[in-house]
UniProtKB/TrEMBL annotation:
A Pfam family reported for this protein in Swiss-Prot or TrEMBL: Hydrolase
Organism this protein belongs to: Exiguobacterium indicum
Enzyme class: hydrolase
Keyword Magnesium: yes
Record-given protein name: HAD family hydrolase
Cofactor: Mg(2+)
Amino acid sequence: MIRAILFDLDETLHDRSGSLPYFLRDQHQRFREVAPVSIDDYITTFLLLDQEGRVWKDVVYAEMIRRFELSLSVEVLLQDYVTRYPIFARSFPGVDTFFAQLPPGLPIGLLSNGRTTFQRAVCDAIGLSPSFTQIGISEQEGVRKPDPIFFLRLTDRLGVRPDEVLYVGDHYDHDILPARALGMQAIWKRTGDVPLTDTQFSDWCHLPSPLQDLIRKENQP
């Protein structure tokens, strides 16, 4: 029986890959020192170095400054990213509707790798912070996915056993495999045109059965 639900953030609830180019375009336009670099090169290079969020931005910006010979400091660009990116952060279509239909009182947790202040700002920006009973972010916790300690720490806080948790994440090795190894029911949020099954989906507007069942419980007469 599912008694709690646990989510990854980036590319699961937060459409990072869709939001990030809008921020980068804005950053390129605001800094005159970047003007000699074409906007396409600026965005493409950042995304390549970023490796889907796995490389922290001080490293990304240091390499961009070197490659493009920019007269800017890492600190200036990093601070701009930290403070302004959340303005552009958006959730995937259908996420808000899904959360609005979850049963009241259902324990809901967030499990995210990243910097604490930044990830919390993203949660605030996409309007989901009030929905979470517990939030765990790797910098604050001192442990990162796929370490099972991170998963167990959140289930303890939610007051449930791992086998009572439904986990939703986008990274197979960091989310799905460790969650299943602990006995959780795990659903893979994937990118692209993939078949909808009980264990995977790509669109929050077309949900797999385990997520539909949670909503049905709330909407039953």
